[in-house]
Write the structure tokens for this entry.
Amino acid sequence: MTEQGGISLFDAIYTMRAIRRFKPDPVPDALLRQVIEAAGQAPSGGNRQPWRWVVIRSAEGKQRVSELVKQANAKAAEARAAGQDRRPAPTPAAAPGADFAESLASVPVIVIACAQAPVSQGPWSVGPFGQTYPGVENLLLAARGVGLGGCITTGFRWMAAEFKEWLGLPDDVEPTCLIPLGYPLGKDGERHGRKTRRPIEELTHEERWGGAISF
Amino acid sequence: MTEQGGISLFDAIYTMRAIRRFKPDPVPDALLRQVIEAAGQAPSGGNRQPWRWVVIRSAEGKQRVSELVKQANAKAAEARAAGQDRRPAPTPAAAPGADFAESLASVPVIVIACAQAPVSQGPWSVGPFGQTYPGVENLLLAARGVGLGGCITTGFRWMAAEFKEWLGLPDDVEPTCLIPLGYPLGKDGERHGRKTRRPIEELTHEERWGGAISF
């Protein structure tokens, strides 16, 4: 469905922030359908549409997600303690917070993006993340557009095998991110708005690596 | 820069098509900057902004890209002939056409999206495609928004090592897609508009794989 009017493209792109804390209000079916349908408008190789979406809305399902993500976080902490995860610490604004896993038990909706692998792989293949993340970006922009919010989380992948078994995913289907969705907590909490980015000239090169761009 | 007004988010999402044939008109610097800046508004883990963009606008550079992509296509054809690439054939509308590699020598702009690898890898890592494709989707939507067009191509990756050497990419930087950009050929050729997608209900499951969704 094409919406006439509504938020402008550039307003959505420039104000869509990662939202991890939500009002308890439920997400209307029509809005959930709208954001997932928008995701499915993404491009894909040969228009094969290799994305699949698993929507968790039951109390039992969300409770199980919360438990699995807590276990994933524990695994991640072990790896950090063992020196296996040497990522720079995220900026405070980007850190998910210790209570995020707990909060998943009560977020309005959880969407798990999945990629179904092509028949064969090769240098042209963009892998499960490349297959799904254009659609995930559409989904998050559409959420912004209808007043909802969400974010890409991948920490659950420390327990990817357990997630796959629990969700009953076929062998060729890989979960690529877990997206909580709901109404942003709002004025006194998380909300959409301007965000911090490096000047694009620092990340862009003319003709070859290191070449300064002027535009 | 936030644009006031302009195309609506949902119009952009629903009408942004893959554009591979372009008018010869050059892309104004300001519009190129606008689409790359929009790309950089994408989310990333810890807001690390791991994308880099190499812009090819010189005649010599585009000629070299065209040659390398022709060589990549030849490699792909060899692999198919040897039975190593068993992909289903793309739909005719999605097939890039035999003249695409040739046309790259004269497209207005070529953008090569690159991902800079994080310090360490782990289950949380989304890899080079996951790092860049949310931004690539923003870039393509923004192009649609300002009247331009482009598409994601990955065939060049059959010659990824040669591209990396030619572009002078550091070892930890991986090119993830090659995007031609320009004004769509228009009325008698390629243009933006409605596109063909499967009903989203076929690609969405409730609670677990196979669960029918109602929304």
